[in-house]
Amino acid sequence: MNATSFEGAPDAGRGGAASPGSGAAPGRVVLLTTSHRVAPGLLSWPAWQALRTADRVLCADGAHPQLPYLREAGISVDEASPTAEELVDACGGGHTVVVVATGEGEPALTDGLARLAGSGRVRMPDLELLPASYDLPGARLLDLVQVMDRIRAECPWSSRQTHQGLAKYGIEEAYELVEAIEDGDRDELREELGDVLLQVVFHARIAEEDPETPFSIDDVAGTIVAKLVHRHPHVFGDETASTPEEVKEHWLRTKAQEKRRTSVTEGIPLHQPGLALAAKLASRVRTAGLEVPLPDTGSIGYELLALAVRAEAEGVDPEAALRAAARVYRDAIRETENPG
């Protein structure tokens, strides 16, 4: 329950904030911020020092997740929401007051302190912003997981989706990502990466509900982490690799051992676009050092196959090359439709 009133420290005076000419020490205000993405109680050492040496510790939110851990550590926390004037008054006589910020960051209080400081009427205490916990890289992914949990539970559309029903969106989002990359649009790239990431989180959330073989986003992440570590012994182990080709060769060899494949063609999705499929087959053949003659029947399909193999050998993505040519063709069509 949030307190609605505040009383200053007993010896801080009750006559209002100290005047500019007052000889009393102005004291110190420490605004302590924490991240909700870090487990409560895991605070920095400077934060614990500030809390233990403070004359008063205040928090406007009685349900703040840090409060049980602070009190367990012997920190007395008053549930209070002082005005800027009351807070300055409480610091009179050299007192230190720590304010444990709520999730919003106490904008009303900080704005009030800024107004007081700008008025020139008040001898302000020292003001310090002290981050008590920091987000690690990737911390916002936790927000995405939490948002997805709520959407899955409360949204009439999302709560009814299945892996099968969402499959087409995964393909669409992947193509939109490729388009953003080829267009060189950085803003669009960031957005499309988010859309692709959403598909991963959405499918993982659905998978949690499977009655027989459930798995979570943590299982998904754990699987790919283990795979990356295992397939990069030149990074995480004792092996060495000096060229991208050596890395790729080891990757394919390790994958074949993991999956016990008897052919380099295993694991290639046959439902991908035809040019990409042909280039992938050619890449596997080249990497394996095989000599496989191309079938030659003179039909258009085999001519396209030969072009895709040639493109792969020259380091060209045939799908991307064809899309680029198609864009030029599209522009030519538009110019013909609208001359001048």
UniProtKB/TrEMBL annotation:
- According to the record, the residues making up region (Disordered) are 1-24
One MF term from GO for this chain?
Answer: methyltransferase activity
Record key words, sorted:
Hydrolase
Q: Which InterPro entries match?
A: 4pyrrol_Methylase_sf, MazG-like_dom, NTP-PPase_MazG-like_N, NTP_PyrPHydrolase_MazG
User: What domain of life?
Assistant: Bacteria
* Organism lineage string: Bacteria, Bacillati, Actinomycetota, Actinomycetes, Kitasatosporales
Q: What is this protein called?
A: Nucleoside triphosphate pyrophosphohydrolase
Task: Write down a Pfam family by its short name.
Answer: MazG
Q: Which GO terms describe its biological process?
A: dATP catabolic process; dGTP catabolic process; dTTP catabolic process; dUTP catabolic process; response to stress; TTP catabolic process; UTP catabolic process
Q: Where is the NTP pyrophosphohydrolase MazG-like domain?
A: 161-236
